[in-house]
């Protein structure tokens, strides 16, 4: 007996409910009524023969099967949307010079660039990874076409791709001496991470000293992992093995930072639209719940 096909629309409704935490908010995201979303979830559960949500009058949560489906749904929808974009967009062709903040490179950029190259074989992408401040200078000089980097609160320039919190991190066995200045491993100034950390410590009247400075986030992570001191990283870049330090440990919240794209107005329109749209879609698949609509 042949198996029924999984309708993409059902998966999109499921993902919207899982990410927003409710049928009403999922309907608002997709432009559907709450009852329409409920019907789609019931149909999905009928096809799978499994319950994907545990529902009560007060709460909604993924079942174990729902958790399993979530990963499949994200990958299937990402591939579906990539396929449609590949055939619906005009064939992009040319060269695009991209500046990317170094912290974004280690985990996410290689996969994004590989997928973009497959979808747009006629686009030649030249990537420069550096600190955000030097990339913005390069953008102003015209030596790069687009920049993907952090921007601080109150900055209007650029378009937000995603938002995520900053985290205090330390090695699992690192011991904090309350009587000594706090050793910091950090990026050089000017840097949002560094500025936020120092401001927070100064407000708490906590003494500090910089013991390690690196122009790469991977260098800061390595120093923290080795136990040289405390660091500040974006949530999505915290490597396994480091522990998070919270207000309970005497480390105040550092707020959130925005990852934004800069230079779209002056970059080659077709190339910029194809690349930034692709990056935004991939980020939504990799880091759901943090990305701009």
From TrEMBL:
Keywords on record: DNA-binding, Transcription, Transcription regulation
Cited InterPro entries: LTTR, LysR_HTH_N, LysR_subst-bd, WH-like_DNA-bd_sf, WH_DNA-bd_sf
UniProt keyword DNA-binding present: yes
Domain of life: Bacteria
Residue ranges of every copy of the HTH lysR-type domain listed in the record: 6-63
Molecular functions (GO terms): DNA binding; DNA-binding transcription factor activity
Keyword Glycoprotein: no
Family under the similarity heading: Belongs to the LysR transcriptional regulatory family.
Protein name per UniProt: LysR-like transcriptional regulator
Gene coding for it: pecT
């Amino acid at each position: 007996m042949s198996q029924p096909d999984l309708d993409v629309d059902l998966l999109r409704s499921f993902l919207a409910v899982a990410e927003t935490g409710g049928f009403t908010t999922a309907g608002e995201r997709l432009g559907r009524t709450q009852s329409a979303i409920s019907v789609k979830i019931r149909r999905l559960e009928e096809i799978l023969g499994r319950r994907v949500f545990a529902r009560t009058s007060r709460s909604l949560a993924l079942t174990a099967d729902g958790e399993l489906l979530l990963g499949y749904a994200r990958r299937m929808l990402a591939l579906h949307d990539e396929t449609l974009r590949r055939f619906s967009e005009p064939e992009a062709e040319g060269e695009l010079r991209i500046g990317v903040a170094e912290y974004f490179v280690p985990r996410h950029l290689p996969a994004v660039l590989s997928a973009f190259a497959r979808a747009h074989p006629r686009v030649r992408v030249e990537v420069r990874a550096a600190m955000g401040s030097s990339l913005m200078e390069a953008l102003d000089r015209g030596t790069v076409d687009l920049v993907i980097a952090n921007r601080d609160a109150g900055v209007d320039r650029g378009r937000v791709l995603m938002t995520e919190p900053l985290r205090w991190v330390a090695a699992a066995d690192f011991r904090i001496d309350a009587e000594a200045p706090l050793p910091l491993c950090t990026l050089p100034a000017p840097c949002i991470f560094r500025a936020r950390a120092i401001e927070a410590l100064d407000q708490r009247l906590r003494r500090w000293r910089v013991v390690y400075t690196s122009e790469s986030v991977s260098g800061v992570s390595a120093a923290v992992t080795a136990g040289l001191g405390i660091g500040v990283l974006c949530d999505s870049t915290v490597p396994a093995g480091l522990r998070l330090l919270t207000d309970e440990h005497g480390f105040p919240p550092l707020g959130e930072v925005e990852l934004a794209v800069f230079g779209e107005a002056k970059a080659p329109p077709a190339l910029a639209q194809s690349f930034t749209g692709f990056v935004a879609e991939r980020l939504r698949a990799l880091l759901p719940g943090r990305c701009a609509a």
